[in-house]
Amino acid sequence: MPNPIQISLDEFMELSLDILCTIDKKGYFVSVSKASKKIWGYEPQELEGKLFLDFVAPQDLEATKKIDQEIINGKEVTYFENHYVHKKGYLVPLVWSAKYDKKKELIYCVAKESTAIKKRESKREKILKSSHALINGTQNLIWSIDKDYNLLASNQAMTKRFLNDLGFDLQVGQNMLQIPILPADYIDRWKALYDQCFKGNEINIEIPPSENDHVKPAWIHANLTPIYENEKIIGLVCHSTDITEKKLIELELNKQKELVENILEHIPMGVAVNEISTGKLALMNSEFSSVYGWPESKLTDVSSFFNNVYSDPEYRKEIKERIFADIESGDLERMKWSELKIQTQDGRTRYVDAKNIPVIEQDLMISTVIDVTDKVLNRRGIVETLEEKKNILESISDAFYALDKDYNFTYVNKSALKTMRKDQNDLIGKNAFEAFPQLKKSVFKNYLDEVKRTGKPAQFEFYYEFYDLWFDESIYPSEDGFSVYYKDITKRKIITQALEEAYEKESEILESISDAFLAVDKDYNFIYFNKKAEKLLNIKKEDAIGKNKWDLFRYAKGTIAEEECDKALKYNETRTFDFYNEPLEKWFNIRSYPSKRGLSIYFRDITLEKKQQEELEKLNQELQEYTQKLENSNQELEQFAYIASHDLQEPLRMVSSFMTQLKNKYESQLDDKAQTYINFAVDGAHRMRQIIIDLLEYSRAGSQKEELQKLDLNEELAEVLSLLHSSLNTKNIDLDVIELPEIYYSRTAIRQLFHNLIGNAIKYSSNVSKPKIEIGLKESKHDYQFKIADNGIGIDPKHQDKIFQIFQRLHSKSEYAGTGLGLAICKKIVEKYGGTIWVESQFGKGSNFYFTIPKN
Fold first, then answer.
1. Contact of 495 with 470, CB cutoff 8 Å
2. Which of 81, 91, 99 is nearest to 21 (CA)?
3. Is there a contact between 441 and 365 (Cβ–Cβ < 8 Å)?
4. In terms of C-beta distances under 8 Å and separation of at least 24 residues, what long-range contacts does 423-431 make, across chains too?
5. Distance between CA 351 and CA 182 in Å, rounded?
6. Model confidence over 557-591: pLDDT tens digits?
7. Would you place residue 195 in the very low, low, confident or very high pLDDT band (cuts 50, 70, 90)?
8. Which neighbouring-strand residues pair with 92?
9. For residue 218, what are the CA distances in angstroms to 204, 242, 254, 654?
């Protein structure tokens, strides 16, 4: 063993922080330690040989003399207080211990400065008073008992509780197991807790409400702690807290949590909830696991999530620093990350949009995610081939437009035009912030300027108040300016908002949805029934909860309802089917969703829809039969018209021929009246033959199937005018024709339209002024409008509807030749191809005939 360190008395006196001194029998200092300099301000040599009473404060002089005499007489003093006068004149409080040595006739003394001691005692007294105030100021019950179960002490709340609730005046010494008004089972429960604590166990327990009428029903949290004395248990202290409200909230939250989990399983986005303080996973829906491509068992906390999802260490570090910095900022706008590159468990690369929503007061972080892999890959391909494949941009669902470096529009696709509610001509070449001044002070302008400054792409979400919509925007720099993609995410924002409010509104949601809803566990016992389900199934919620589905609805067992529900549970998949409820005589459309507890079942009454569907199918069948009969009838009529016209023309030709031969052979032998009769007969036969030809043409117009072809109307009009050349020259008509377009139409139909309308304009031309015919065109977004105008005799407005009907003539055959079928044929042709025809005219002022041809 090492040699013990030897310390001399002189060394000890030099090292001591307290004053060590010796005083002779006459009261003079013999020796003083160096601590006197620090405490009294005197060096030891300044005190040695001096009378110690000369340094005592006047108010303490008598008491000090008295105690000095008692010490010399043999009393050992361990605690004596007085004050010494410091060298600088102020008083120093001291605590002395002293003993007299008769042999050496010396008093050995130790003096401590008592300022710190006084402060500690004062603080201890304040703490003691505060402790009593805290104990009696709390509403919690606090009491202590000895090992015989007798009350040692209790706070005011404990005494008041016994007095007010039980009418019992609780006193110290009362045996806590012998309170008459308390029921035996209640006392036995507490005795068991007391005994367990007396064995040295500290007890923390939640006690459910008692069913006894004499005890106030409440949840109690009790803490029992043993009291030790000399390492032996002599009693215990119990601290009891009423946690009824907390437990009710906790039970309600558990119900809401189950409901939230059910909702989360069916929303179209991944959702997970982690504890902020520990990073541990609290909740995850299947979509979250599906999007990231990892099972829940591999994503148990924030650390495992980053290690698995971001496999590359450098990329993981970069992403982790970025995400943590955004979260620590507290800015919700920064807690949105777009197109993060992740890796699934099977090694596939995906891109996701993620968002975090902190719920600080609950120590929770809500994380949402959607898979945007397809969007990212599609957009990248589109950006690379933007100039060459603009038609692809028109086909994508995302809105897209391009800006030059001065923010002027250079291209806008159809989806963007639809969202902006603008026409292409309104935007191309115009500055974006002049076209949409509301954007000048928006986050969009800030991001666009940032992309211009840094040359790096930006992705963000923002609310466009003017349209009351949320947009997901991506801005990419290009050689010529900027490419901007965006899509309407208003529905997604509404869903996210609903998720954030779900903890408060789950029951309201299920009760307010239009569909009936019920939930069963995996044994088909009902665990939820909303009001709509009660109404449709004619059963009360309280009569269903806890009952087995197939016991309550025996008629449904063995039907498609049981088969589909079994499949939903077995294969963990959503099943949708229609089911006829015979007792209720109703059809239901049922959607069965698997959940952690069993099945969530939504259903609605489709009885009316079924009836309407049956009636519609019946009507469709009747319509098909009628259509077939009509087609057969039309074919028969066309054949009849052709045969009739052919058979009727033959005798007319014979009449006309023989009458002409009769005239030629016997002309010299016939008088004028006979000649007139022959002329009437020949003319009547010719007119009758023309009527038959026009009737045949009318029956064929608009009914014959003819393939459409691309036509240059300038060429078709020239062909028609060449046929009418003789009539135009004879009447010396001025013709004004503009350039006509190319269209898809029937060649026969368009020629007949032009021939009939221009022929009418020639026939009814003016005899007063020089005849004029104008052929015009007006183009709109959807069709071409043609005009055939003349300055002829015109048409009285009251007859303008009549002229498009067959055989409707406004003049006698002696005035103007014709059968009255030309305009009826025009109307039939125009309407066959989806157009309209009309006339604007005044009698004596000419006529304007219009007809339209759709562009499609």
1. no
2. 99
3. no
4. 427/401, 431/406, 431/407
5. 66
6. 889 989 999 998 888 888 999 999 888 889 999 99
7. very high
8. 84
9. 17, 7, 19, 118
- Residue 206 CA to residue 330 CA, distance in Å, equals 37
Q: State phi, psi for 406 to the nearest 5 degrees.
A: -100, 10
**Which position has the token pair 């074919």?**
635
- H helix and E strand count, the chain: 29, 32
Q: Report d(CA 86, CA 19) in Å as an integer.
A: 14
671, two tokens: 């008088």
End-to-end CA distance of the chain: 113
393 pLDDT more than 70: no
Torsion of CA 344, 348, 352, 600, to 10 degrees: -60
Answer whether 162's CB lies under 8 Å from 171's CB: no
- Residue whose pair of structure tokens reads 């906390």 in the numeric block: 301
Neighbours of 504 (CB within 10 A): 9
Pull the structure tokens for residue 122.
Answer: 């004062």
Q: Which two tokens stand for residue 709?
A: 């072809």
Which pairs from 827-834 meet CB under 8 Å and 24+ separation? 828/698, 828/701, 828/702, 829/701, 829/702, 829/749, 829/752, 829/753, 830/753, 831/702, 832/701, 832/702, 832/703, 832/749, 833/745, 833/746, 833/749
Which distant-in-sequence residues (6+ apart) come within 8 Å of 560 by Cβ?
577, 579
pLDDT digits (tens, 9 = 90+) for 695-753: 555 455 555 556 788 899 999 889 888 888 888 888 888 889 999 999 988 888 888 89
Task: Compute CA distances 647 → 69, 498, 659, whole Å.
Answer: 168, 79, 19
Q: Is the dihedral of CA 35, 38, 40, 46 positive or negative?
A: positive
pLDDT at 1: 45
What is the number of alpha carbons within 13 Å of residue 223 lying toward its C-beta? 7
Q: Which pTM does this prediction carry? A: 0.29
Q: Are strands 772-779 and 734-737 parallel, antiparallel or unpaired?
A: parallel
DSSP 514-571: SSEEEEEETT-BEEEE-HHHHHHHT--HHHHTTSBHHHHTGGGTTSHHHHHHHHHHHH
**CB neighbourhood size of 35 (10 A):** 22
Interacting residues of 701 by C-beta distance below 8 A, sequence separation 6+: 749, 752, 825, 828, 829, 832
Confidence at 812, pLDDT banded by 50, 70, 90? very low
Record the tokens describing residue 111, joined without a space. 């003096």
pLDDT tens for each residue of 320-338: 899 999 888 889 889 899 8
Bridge partners (DSSP) listed for residue 839: 849
Q: What is the mean pLDDT of residues 114-139?
A: 68
Task: Transcribe 751-779 into DSSP letters.
Answer: HHHHHHHHHHHHHT--SSS--EEEEEEEE
Spatial separation of the C-alpha atoms in residues 569 and 553, rounded to whole Å: 19
> How distant, in Å, are the alpha carbons of 376, 387, 475, 482, 620 from that of 478?
17, 11, 10, 5, 56
Label residue 776 exposed, middle or buried (CB < 10 Å: 0-12, 13-18, 19+).
middle
846: how many CB neighbours lie within 10 A of its CB?
24
User: What is the residue-wise DSSP string for 355-421?
Assistant: EEEEEGGGTEEEEEEEE-HHHHHHHHHHHHTTTT-HHHHHHSSSEEEEEETTSBEEEE-HHHHHHHT
Contact between 141 and 243 under an 8 Å Cβ cutoff? The reply is no
464 token code pair: 């466009």
Cβ contacts of 194-197, under 8 Å, gap ≥ 24: 194/145, 194/149, 194/224, 194/236, 196/224, 197/224, 197/225, 197/226, 197/236
H/E stretch holding 651 = helix 607-666
CB distance 733 to 772 below 8 Å: yes
Nearest to 752 by CA among 797, 688, 704: 704
